[in-house]
Amino acid sequence: MSGTAEKARTQRLERLRSMVHNRLEQPAAALEALLSELKIGEQQPTLWEELHGASLRDQKEQDLATAYRKITTAQRLRDYPASAQAQILMHAADFFQGVLGDSAASEELLQRVLVTVPGHDEAFARLERKFSAAANKRDLIELYARVAEKPPKAADELARTALNAMMHLPGGTVLADDACKRLVAYVPVCVSILGGLETHCRKTARLDLAGALIEQAIDTFNLAKVEVTDLRRRLIDLYEDANTRGKSIAHVEWLLEHDPADTKARAAGEKLLTHREVGARATAAVRQAKKKAPFG
């Protein structure tokens, strides 16, 4: 930093300290000074806290709230790296919760932190405490879904907690499709989460989504043969119940290839023999299975 720039910075910090220690006349200017510090890698945590206290002392809370809303727009934040964006959003969340008592605004900001920096420890911990204390199972599950790709805690612990919460969701509560898809990331440490997702999707009349989640797991992860076998059999039932029987052909073929005597696969294949689109494949699969295990 040049001598001129350093002098300007020193003067800026002196004005900022004067405002937070004496009289906060221009909250927006004080906030911009802190952003300038952040741009050069200076976090100044004490001054951020003192700014919040000064706004309360001088009854400038609403002015500072307006300034925070302006600097936390996506357009303003894009000038900062992700880590700095997360810091700004965290300071804003602190202000809205601690000074204004606006829990909803604080929660929205914390959620944005996790979008910006997936797995952000502090944002995750605050949201987890809030949702757990409120027994808000849906939001807790969707929080765990949001951090599934980069969990801030042991993945198996989060998966088990999410699965337990899923099993006790109030009737009529629907998890977002995107959250369900994200939860599939926990399958390597908790394959049973697929059973929870399937049950939830059945209860909420989303059989197509249930099938897509299981397909996603089979395609994405190197699961044990016994697990894949179970999942493919469940897909046969799902597609039967969804009246989309033809979608099960690949699973019928796989099951019969690995066990020609598989009764579920044999029965599903028989039902597909006259299917317009996959009948030929079903015929070939069933015929080959009967050759290998004629009395299976």
Structural commentary:
This protein has 296 residues and is mainly α. It has a domain at 1-119: Serine Threonine Protein Phosphatase 5, Tetratricopeptide repeat, CATH 1.25.40. It contains 17 helices and no strands. The chain has helices at residues 3-21, 27-39, 45-57, 61-71, 74-77, 82-98, 103-116, 121-133, 137-146, 155-167, 177-183, 193-203, 207-220, 225-241, 249-258, 263-271, 279-292. The longest helix is centred in the first third of the chain and has 19 residues, at 3-21. The chain is elongated, with a radius of gyration of 28 Å. It starts with a helix and ends with a helix.
How would you concisely characterize the structure shown here?
With 296 residues, this protein is mainly alpha-helical.
Rg, please? 28 Å
The CATH topology of the domain at 1-119: Serine Threonine Protein Phosphatase 5, Tetratricopeptide repeat
Quickly name the level 1 CATH class of the domain at 1-119: Mainly Alpha
Report the strand count: 0
Shape: elongated
Please provide the ordered H/E string of secondary-structure elements.
HHHHHHHHHHHHHHHHH
- The chain-level structural class is mainly alpha
The helical percent reads over 70%
Number of helices: 17
Instruction: Give the CATH architecture of the domain at 1-119.
Output: Alpha Horseshoe
Cα(first) to Cα(last) distance is: 80 Å
**Largest beta sheet, briefly?**
none
Low-confidence stretches: none
Mean pLDDT: 95
Q: Classify the beta-strand content into a percent band.
A: under 5%
